[in-house]
Amino acid sequence: xxxxxxxxxxxxxxxxxxxxxxxxxxxxxxxxxxxxxxxxxxxxxxxxxxxxxxxxxxxxxxxxxxxxxxxxxxxxxxxxxxxxxxxxxxxxxxxxxxxxxxxxxxxxxxxxxxxxxxxxxxxxxxxxxxxxxxxxxxxxxxxxxxxxxxxxxxxxxxxxxxxxxxxxxxxxxxxxxxxxxxxxxxxxxxxxxxxxxxxxxxxxxxxxxxxxxxxxxxxxxxxxxxxxxxxxxxxxxxxxxxxxxxxxxxxxxxxxxxxxxxxxxxxxxxxxxxxxxxxxxxxxxxxxxxxxxxxxxxxxxxxxxxxxxxxxxxxxxxxxxxxxxxxxxxxxx
Amino acid sequence: xxxxxxxxxxxxxxxxxxxxxxxxxxxxxxxxxxxxxxxxxxxxxxxxxxxxxxxxxxxxxxxxxxxxxxxxxxxxxxxxxxxxxxxxxxxxxxxxxxxxxxxxxxxxxxxxxxxxxxxxxxxxxxxxxxxxxxxxxxxxxxxxxxxxxxxxxxxxxxxxxxxxxxxxxxxxxxxxxxxxxxxxxxxxxxxxxxxxxxxxxxxxxxxxxxxxxxxxxxxxxxxxxxxxxxxxxxxxxxxxxxxxxxxxxxxxxxxxxxxxxxxxxxxxxxxxxxxxxxxxxxxxxxxxxxxxxxxxxxxxxxxxxxxxxxxxxxxxxxxxxxxxxxxxxxxxx
Amino acid sequence: xxxxxxxxxxxxxxxxxxxxxxxxxxxxxxxxxxxxxxxxxxxxxxxxxxxxxxxxxxxxxxxxxxxxxxxxxxxxxxxxxxxxxxxxxxxxxxxxxxxxxxxxxxxxxxxxxxxxxxxxxxxxxxxxxxxxxxxxxxxxxxxxxxxxxxxxxxxxxxxxxxxxxxxxxxxxxxxxxxxxxxxxxxxxxxxxxxxxxxxxxxxxxxxxxxxxxxxxxxxxxxxxxxxxxxxxxxxxxxxxxxxxxxxxxxxxxxxxxxxxxxxxxxxxxxxxxxxxxxxxxxxxxxxxxxxxxxxxxxxxxxxxxxxxxxxxxxxxxxxxxxxxxxxxxxxxx
Amino acid sequence: xxxxxxxxxxxxxxxxxxxxxxxxxxxxxxxxxxxxxxxxxxxxxxxxxxxxxxxxxxxxxxxxxxxxxxxxxxxxxxxxxxxxxxxxxxxxxxxxxxxxxxxxxxxxxxxxxxxxxxxxxxxxxxxxxxxxxxxxxxxxxxxxxxxxxxxxxxxxxxxxxxxxxxxxxxxxxxxxxxxxxxxxxxxxxxxxxxxxxxxxxxxxxxxxxxxxxxxxxxxxxxxxxxxxxxxxxxxxxxxxxxxxxxxxxxxxxxxxxxxxxxxxxxxxxxxxxxxxxxxxxxxxxxxxxxxxxxxxxxxxxxxxxxxxxxxxxxxxxxxxxxxxxxxxxxxxx
Lengths: 333, 333, 333, 333
Fold this sequence. Notes:
4 copies of one chain form a homotetramer.
Chain A: E1 2-5, H1 11-23, E2 27-32, E3 37-42, E4 59-63, E5 83-85, E6 88-90, E7 96-100, H2 107-119, E8 124-126, H3 144-157, E9 160-164, H4 170-177, E10 180-183, H5 191-197, E11 204-207, H6 214-226, E12 232-236, H7 254-261, E13 266-268, H8 270-274, H9 280-289, E14 294-298, H10 316-330
Helix pairs in contact in A: 2-3, 5-6, 9-10
């Protein structure tokens, strides 16, 4: 249930509603909007008796929520959520580009690529320090050493950092270095990690699972938001189908579908969808044309020697071309 | 195997190569290119002895073809195929829009919609006279009466007509009225129909099957081309996956994938992919941005009373918006 | 709508109901059951006024049918359909085994295999004379010559013949030679072929399409039955998924699902599902254990030289083992 | 690489090989077989120089391993692995039945169901204390209280306990109460959990992810085994496809496929595959007929009031029937 406050409701009136919801045994999450604040009741196993709430000062009305998710829903909050990191706004109309290698391999590699993508217009640097790999024998990332390198990248280039946390204890370390914490596709339903991410003060980039429905993706975002962290960025990165000409099938319709039912921003990772750099540019253009709020792109200065995901990493020249094409599209709408 | 002719090869030299291939028990299909003609040998169960061919006048070289398809392949013909219907060029760089209702329901309905989409910039009118329907009890189209109405639409509006043929005998009737003959997704591997389409003088619009790989789509085009009809337009219309927020999952990567391996044009049907008109515009924009040669869009003046596919048909106003957005994108590249 | 006749209704009373339904502009299909006959009304676009029908002699009641299919439905006919071909009963409780090569390659090949599978207990011989192949350059079957060979196989071995018809004109030839006419997976929604099969006096073996839902499979059976041919055998042969350890994913749950909603028999083709002979035996055992009415199995005396589907064809010794294992299971229930 | 020891190799010779492998910078895992012991080298990024190893006493030969997994592989260990828990042997030829409710709801509920399934022949009791749920607002299990109830179930009924651990810290608690630790489908690629499971002394039941290939399932088992815990039981529970007549599509071919490439036992969960109790029995029979080493079945005394998975839980009478049918099949082979 949603408690909608009047335009002129004061902070103390909002707090009084939250307190009352807690007395009822549930939890109230205020969600400020451009016009007015709504308070979402979570933790209720069934219908809620709203008679007491309706008598409180500043309350305009209550609205039952029909979807299995609440906090992620447009029913709940009609304005699109804009996530601000320094001077970068994700969901603010202008696509944000996050670029970098699959994994941090060395300080030199990270800095080289970071300088290149910065110069070409990327705003966020992506690179993994902890890598979930299908094989226990594959390169698993540099760990904390990798995070420290990412810290230097930020310091030197001014790029913000997005990097992956792989479990609910590991995230403590990651959030010391990252500006955005990534939760990978294989962890989309790792609920311990989601709950812990809900307690973080950093924005979370949540990637869609390989066979997750849009509803399941939103439910996983709901886990994070129900913990108090309302800064969630969704990411479409292709789903698993019978089709074999790409690594995954980019579900471009995820963009309008998410935007219809949720206020959260959604970006696209064309690299993991394609699996081959030859297809990354057309998929990136399609993503922006379909309304994506940004891109997460793999770029490597030496893809043939990359420790992971080489075949899908762009050469810097290709990334330059991508940025050019995206800019043209961007001024379209 | 491919026999590549020299730039200055004469028509009679080309014919001599075709004749020699026939004497060897196979068939030779000349494929003219901008620079030179290549002749594809089809019908050979295995490797071909090219020693005799290499001695003929005008022959530059022979190239073994490694893919299971030949005539559709870029190995065979590097220039993109452009299909010309009157003043419309499909594959010529400027996206072509084919629009209209799912089915011809009456002369008035067809003419009303045709005038609207013509005015808004569509070049081809799409509407089914023969409708393959999942249920034997559903509306199956007006049949020949529907084709006659399409004839009037062309006469009155100047729009070219694309309409579906449903089997290898029915196509005889359809090709009398259609400018482009559509083969539907459920018939993509109806080989009797494909073979007959290969004998037609009309271009064929071949839709990808619900669970066809790109290679299978190309093999079906190869059936048509191996019969002598080289005018094939491919169409991505979404594939069947677990995802349930759309009727089908638009595989946007089909566009760069087809363009990489084939010279044939490919258009996109965002209506059948989406299944809901709300998603048609973003999918259409994505298709054009990814490099599609055109769109096949369902438009209806009264979708709520349409006899089929109402929920995915655009209102004329929405189609106007689509045309406007596509035009902006078009000038981008 | 279903018109249920009383136990003691006479043939002329049944005919009077059929006549009345025709006067109403629809068609009545009598479906005799063990206890009583029901008459299904088909061709009605919406609800039917049953007031006149309820006054006719012998009519017990009318039942609205809620599913999109009618004739295939258990609502319509609770007794399982048993299809009788000579002394073979499909759907009669004892699994029927149909075995043979993918394609007729020669008289000697067909007769050799037929004698072997006959000796080992197969009741029906399977082999294609017309082969739908993904590539236009692949072996397409011996055509009518192949059908004549199948005629000799029946004459010499006493095996009944199941073989594929590939379009609505080709079926005329096939039905002269076949005891059961197969409609392949790629033609499951070739409605011209389905309609023509509905006019045949021969039983139809309808294979599930690569990405067909159970409802779509039943709707295709409904096409055949609505034409008057009530003898339809369904066949599960695996569906297309992301899984890559088999050619297709055998959907074993199709068996209880079909049996729940339909009275039609269903058999399983473990060969096309597996794609590798190593998995055919366990899949065949699973099919029988799950309640399948029979098997369609590829057996070849020389699989390494088979013109098609060699890797999934059993050696005769493996087929002997399969028959032994099936027999053990068969006495279980 | 695999170092195969001679039949008569002594323990100290085996240890010497392990020590030498460690000196080379890798790790050696001895895998005892019925005939002889093989030592698997893990941790090597590429080919290993075996010249020194071949000179050690007791070494018969070295074998390069071509698959991405090693410890799970039949190349590595040809005898099937049998996991022994008290008097229960999983993989020992006789199917093991694990039954119980989705979740522990109360002591009374758990004990009631446990007594029933024990009486009917189940050997292991399944019930979740920690439940990964799609919605943050759904019942998440009783937690440690649930584990304590499971402890009482074991004490009172003598049933062994299988229950789920949901992350790498939670597993410490679970392994105090469980005889088998379950890793759920959504955690199949939670590598932190897999690594921690590799340090446990309890057998691990690893469920296949919703869209995991067989190779990915085996790689996840490899994570566990590479940590030292060789007791892994795989579980097929249906995969996600387009098919909508079941909750998931049971991939029955997973059984022969796993058995071909791995020595690990595999059981089947027909309840989650079916999603409806009506299909559980045929799927269970199919699983056993295909060679599964056991079943994991949901049984509830009052499914309509179950807090989760009610529609797919068997009534005790249905479970009695399942046990009867499985027994018949069991004596078959």
